[in-house]
Amino acid sequence: MVRAVPLDLTASRRLVVKVGSALLVENGAPRADWLATLAHDLAALRSGGTEIIVVSSGAIALGAAKLGMAKGGRGSLADAQAAASVGQVELARLWAENLGRHDVTAAQMLVTLGDLEDRRRYLNASATLQRLIEAGAVPVVNENDSVATEEIRFGDNDRLAARVAQAAGADAVILLSDVDGLYDRDPREDGAVRLERVEGVTPEIIAMADTSSTSGLGSGGMLAKLQAARIAERAGISLVIANGTHLSPLTRYRDTGIGTVFVPQADASARKAWLAGRLAPAGVLTVDDGCAEALAKGASLLAAGLAEIEGEFARGDLVAIFGPKGERLGQGLVEYSAAECRAILGLREDQQEAKLGYAPRAAVIHRDHMVQA
Ligand SMILES: Nc1ncnc2c1ncn2[C@@H]1O[C@H](COP(=O)(O)OP(=O)(O)O)[C@@H](O)[C@H]1O
Ligand SMILES: N[C@@H](CCC(=O)OP(=O)(O)O)C(=O)O
């Protein structure tokens, strides 16, 4: 068998390192020795010319321990928000201390889903990351859990890491977890085999993730990691899932190559990749067979092909596109409000003006503002 080639982290120009809750926190206390070795690895990579961004979980777990909260602070949203407020203070201190030992300045950056979903705010976050790195700091990013509410939060730091990588123009992401990579089924099952390399996060790959299991402290599970891999591959970013439980986890990955590498697909423009990675559509357009076929060939979505409209959205909002059998086809920025879409549903272009009372825009979603699933 040909040995799969691991991702060469030292070849990365800008790398996002994501650390899961289970790695940082054990029985409510930080894994101090482990963190010291990770900081050492990060400093070494940085000295070799790789710019580093850390995405660190652990605020909820640390805060819950301090407050004596049940269920690791995940019993309710209010608990998670309060636990995160307390834990984030400690998390930032841990990073500042551990990176500081190598004369590296840590910079805390807390973001919400909205900060990366709205194009203007996304560009702003992107500029801040850029400036911090130029200034020689290592951004340590987490979700702003204390203000994020259920509908507008990532909830897992895997997708957040992929979006941050995109915003920062990183070329690689490593998700450090408590498992050696993606297995073809839950790794606790007999006969589970690890995949060395994935070219394209297909529905078959997604089906391998057991949605019910996480390490216990985290929230994402393998499914969130695969969604992150999908965002990354579409943005032309390499992503690897590796086991971070051991001391000096990055050195260990370099020496053993144990992990799963997701190969990027580099064809999308930066804007389309951003669009593909957006996570919160405001509505759903269901289209008929003919329209689904046309979309697959790269056409714009026309009102004539609309079969059903769900949700309330305004012009410019993100909507998901589904085919007649309920299959997800893609998503895009809509040119009409939900009410207008309902009014022109199924109509040909020449019938739309009579219905709306004004000249219609050519497409409901222009192909330049659409990405396939
Ligand atoms: N197909 C799979 N391959 C690997 N791990 C899986 C799979 N399905 C479920 N898992 C579970 O996902 C867990 C990792 O997710 P999670 O606990 O959220 O990690 P983290 O806290 O590092 O983000 C593993 O411990 C494993 O039990
Ligand atoms: N933002 C949260 C972490 C979210 C989360 O659980 O992520 P993960 O442990 O990576 O599945 C925190 O700091 O506790």
UniProtKB/TrEMBL annotation:
<protein>
    <recommendedName>
        <fullName>Glutamate 5-kinase</fullName>
        <ecNumber>2.7.2.11</ecNumber>
    </recommendedName>
</protein>
<comment type="pathway">
    <text>Amino-acid biosynthesis; L-proline biosynthesis; L-glutamate 5-semialdehyde from L-glutamate: step 1/2.</text>
</comment>
<feature type="domain" description="PUA">
    <location>
        <begin position="283"/>
        <end position="365"/>
    </location>
</feature>
<comment type="function">
    <text>Catalyzes the transfer of a phosphate group to glutamate to form L-glutamate 5-phosphate.</text>
</comment>
<keyword id="KW-0963">Cytoplasm</keyword>
<dbReference type="InterPro" id="IPR011529">
    <property type="entry name" value="Glu_5kinase"/>
</dbReference>
<dbReference type="InterPro" id="IPR036974">
    <property type="entry name" value="PUA_sf"/>
</dbReference>
<keyword id="KW-0547">Nucleotide-binding</keyword>
<keyword id="KW-0808">Transferase</keyword>
<keyword id="KW-0641">Proline biosynthesis</keyword>
<keyword id="KW-0418">Kinase</keyword>
<dbReference type="InterPro" id="IPR001057">
    <property type="entry name" value="Glu/AcGlu_kinase"/>
</dbReference>
<keyword id="KW-0028">Amino-acid biosynthesis</keyword>
<keyword id="KW-0067">ATP-binding</keyword>
<dbReference type="InterPro" id="IPR019797">
    <property type="entry name" value="Glutamate_5-kinase_CS"/>
</dbReference>
<feature type="binding site">
    <location>
        <position position="145"/>
    </location>
    <ligand>
        <name>substrate</name>
    </ligand>
</feature>
<feature type="binding site">
    <location>
        <position position="18"/>
    </location>
    <ligand>
        <name>ATP</name>
    </ligand>
</feature>
<dbReference type="Pfam" id="PF01472">
    <property type="entry name" value="PUA"/>
</dbReference>
<dbReference type="InterPro" id="IPR001048">
    <property type="entry name" value="Asp/Glu/Uridylate_kinase"/>
</dbReference>
<comment type="similarity">
    <text>Belongs to the glutamate 5-kinase family.</text>
</comment>
<dbReference type="Pfam" id="PF00696">
    <property type="entry name" value="AA_kinase"/>
</dbReference>
<feature type="binding site">
    <location>
        <position position="157"/>
    </location>
    <ligand>
        <name>substrate</name>
    </ligand>
</feature>
<dbReference type="InterPro" id="IPR041739">
    <property type="entry name" value="G5K_ProB"/>
</dbReference>
<feature type="binding site">
    <location>
        <begin position="177"/>
        <end position="178"/>
    </location>
    <ligand>
        <name>ATP</name>
    </ligand>
</feature>
<dbReference type="GO" id="GO:0004349">
    <property type="term" value="F:glutamate 5-kinase activity"/>
</dbReference>
<dbReference type="InterPro" id="IPR002478">
    <property type="entry name" value="PUA"/>
</dbReference>
<dbReference type="InterPro" id="IPR036393">
    <property type="entry name" value="AceGlu_kinase-like_sf"/>
</dbReference>
<dbReference type="InterPro" id="IPR005715">
    <property type="entry name" value="Glu_5kinase/COase_Synthase"/>
</dbReference>
<dbReference type="InterPro" id="IPR015947">
    <property type="entry name" value="PUA-like_sf"/>
</dbReference>
<feature type="binding site">
    <location>
        <position position="57"/>
    </location>
    <ligand>
        <name>substrate</name>
    </ligand>
</feature>
